Amino acid sequence: MTSSTIRSGAGDHAVADPGSPAPRRGDGLAALAFLTPSIITFLVFVLAPTVGVLVLSFYNWNLLSDGTFTGFDNFVRLLHDGRLLGVYGSTAYMALVILAVNVALGLLLAVLLETRMPRWLRGLFRLSFLFPFVVSASAVALIWRFLLNKDLGLVNYLLGLLGADRIDWLGSSAFAPVSVIVVNSWKTIGFSILVYIAGLQSIPKELREAAIVDGAGAWTRFWRITFPLLSPTVFFLVVINTINSFQIFAEPRVLTQGGPGDSSRTIVEYLYDRAFGDFDLGYASAIGITFAMVLVLLTAIQFWFSRRWTFYS
């Protein structure tokens, strides 16, 4: 019988194609079993804390007494907190520089690592860039705190050999943010390099070989072939690094404690101080909610602009 439909007195009944597997109830249960750990993790560690912070932002609570409902008072306080604006400024400065370093310098290093060199040397460079990324941020910051010490640090010792004056890397309002930028970039750039290398390896070699035959130079090949095909990878790293760089905490906390003043203090660090230093959890929750909205807005803007320069093959 070639027809997939059999007519009977009760009506038309569809008969499944014998070549296609019949759906089984066990498949759905198996899928649910695999998804259950992720669902539970999302509910417990993402959704529940988010709802808790949203509710807490309408209360005045110090962890010791019963919370008092204050409505939108915590959000009104944000408008009159002059210090918060300065912290946003220092955070944006450090985050944008870190973003530029990770995206631009990461791309340059990835392209250099993909050039012709011995395989063992290429593997050594990849490992040296990736190793800091897998190390704890606090451990990295603690090591760099000794390296950047004004009197005993290795960095100032090397500068002294070159005849330069010692720099107060961690105690100067001009150099403290620079120290945070250097340490965070040194730790995180390996991830960008790794993602870039994966994107470069996905580009067909035939396209670049054809461009070489046509007489295109290295810069022309990069700008006309490599970058357009790599633009989705660049966009991904722009979004990820923006979110991560605005949320840095361990490096300024260990290196400078946000100082001097608020020159190297980040929003996450300021939120932490208000919550667990001043025990003002309601106001800290309001800061967290508005900060999350800022990140969502930045991501939405990036997605909107990406339509002009991102090309998907």
Compact summary:
This protein has 313 residues and is mostly helical. 69% of the residues lie in helices and 4% in strands.
How would you characterize this protein structure?
The chain has 12 helices and 4 strands. The strands form 2 sheets. Strands 1-2 form a two-stranded antiparallel sheet. The protein has a two-stranded antiparallel ribbon with strand order 3-4. A hairpin with a 7-residue loop joins strand 3 (59-60) and strand 4 (68-69). Helix 3 (82-113) crosses helix 7 and helix 3 packs antiparallel against helix 9 (218-246). The protein has one domain (76-309): Orthogonal Bundle (MetI-like fold). It has helices spanning 25-56, 73-79, 82-113, 119-134, 137-147, 154-161, 176-201, 205-213, 218-246, 250-255, 267-276, 281-309, and strands at residues 5-8, 11-14, 59-60, 68-69. Residues 1-16 have low confidence and may be disordered. It has 313 residues and is mainly α. Helix content is 69%, strand content 4%.
Question: What's the SSE blueprint?
Answer:
Blueprint: E1 5-8, E2 11-14, H1 25-56, E3 59-60, E4 68-69, H2 73-79, H3 82-113, H4 119-134, H5 137-147, H6 154-161, H7 176-201, H8 205-213, H9 218-246, H10 250-255, H11 267-276, H12 281-309
Antiparallel strand pairs: 1-2, 3-4
Helix pairs in contact: 2-12, 3-7, 3-9, 4-7, 7-9, 9-12, 11-12
Labels describing this entry:
313 residues; mainly alpha; MetI-like fold; two-stranded antiparallel sheet; 12 helices; 4 strands
| Helical proportion, percent range | 55-70%
CATH topology: MetI-like fold
Please tell me the total number of domains: 1
Inertia-based shape: globular
Secondary structure tally: strands: 4
Range of strand content: under 5%
Number of helices: 12
